[in-house]
Amino acid sequence: MLKTYQGSCHCGAVRFEAEIDLTEPTYRCNCSICSRTRFWPAIVPPDRIRVLQGQDGLTKYLFNSRRNEHWFCATCGVRPFGIGHLPDGTRIYGVNIGSLENVPDEVLAAAPVVHVDGRNDRHAAPAIFSHL
Ligand SMILES: [Zn+2]
């Protein structure tokens, strides 16, 4: 069921809210950026996320194809979300579940996780993924 969650960076400069169904798949990936940041996103279309405060405090990091936008708070470094693209080009947000506020541990623990072999550009689980 979709629920509206409040989210923030660590220092509080950035605040957002997003409608997320945490019984739908979430993602862990072994690519260079996800492994370094321990990013754990829920996938959300643009009309289900709103930056409420601190857009000016966000910095966009681009690399490689420069198509995916890795947004982080310039003060505390937390990544509230990233923006990627579906195969048809549609913009899609990856909301950092770790940035959501007041999510019960039972809900986080029950969220289904799909493991992705981003390091090899594969949308399938890598051979080893329990550490992700
Ligand atoms: Zn911050």
Notes on the protein architecture:
The protein is mostly beta strands and 132 residues long. The protein has one domain: Beta Complex (Metal Binding Protein, Guanine Nucleotide Exchange Factor, Chain A), CATH 2.170.150. 9% of the residues lie in helices and 37% in strands. The chain contains two helices and ten strands, in the order E-E-E-H-E-E-E-E-E-E-H-E. Strands 4-9-8-7-6 form a five-stranded antiparallel beta sheet, with no helix packed on it. A three-stranded antiparallel beta sheet has the order 1-2-5, with no helix packed on it. It has a two-stranded parallel sheet with strand order 3-10. A hairpin with a 7-residue loop joins strand 6 and strand 7. The longest helix has 6 residues. Bound molecules: zinc ion. Zinc ion binds next to loops.
Short description:
The chain has helices at 32-37, 105-110; strands at 3-8, 15-20, 26-29, 41-44, 49-53, 58-61, 69-73, 81-85, 91-96, 113-116. With 132 residues, the chain is mostly beta strands.
Average of pLDDT:
96
| Overall outline | globular
Beta fraction: 35-45%
CATH classification, class level: Mainly Beta
Alpha carbon gap, first and last residue: 26 Å
Q: How many discrete structural domains?
A: 1
Number-wise, the strands total 10
Secondary-structure-based class equals: mainly beta
Q: For the largest beta sheet, what order do the strands appear in spatially?
A: 4-9-8-7-6
| Alpha carbon gyration radius | 14 Å
Poorly predicted segments: none
Ions, cofactors and other ligands present here are: zinc ion
How would you sum up the major sheet? 5 strands, antiparallel
